[in-house]
Amino acid sequence: MPFSTLTQLDYLPVLDEAGQLPEQVAGKVGVYAIFDRDQQLQYIGYSRDVLLSVKQHLVRRPQSCYWLKVQTVERPSRTVLEELRSEWFAEMGELPPGNREEAESWSQPIDVKPRMTAAEQSAYQMGDEQEQIKILKQVARRIEAAVLSELTDRGVQFPVRFDPKAKEFGLLDLK
Domain 6-107 is of which CATH architecture? Predict the structure, then answer.
């Protein structure tokens, strides 16, 4: 089955007027591209649940996720998904920033350690293991509040919950 080129696909808003994600991609396997407000390509990925992946990207990179293009795959295999993603990369002529220097911020949980204040870093380095966990959780809650505020400013109207256990390691990851 021939797949669409990236330019042939229509743009979908990442958030609709009601502040919700595009339900038509919930539970769908496919390759997707995310664009910023100006429809500049930011990231190309593939997923076994496109909606869940887009939600994670929106939480991690709210100012980079405004538009979406999706090609669903009925008989998915990693090979098919990787080949289609590679075709889109070739079509665009270069890798988007989310697949190059910004890759970690698109694909990994938010690491709060680099966002520690000098006082937090000092207390963390001097503390024992229990104290370090306590500090990481405090920093994670502070960064979580900033992320949730930014998502509210973007108009997000769905609940966003982070894994409480991950906060002990200084990570914000969706639950």
Answer: 3-Layer(aba) Sandwich (3.40)
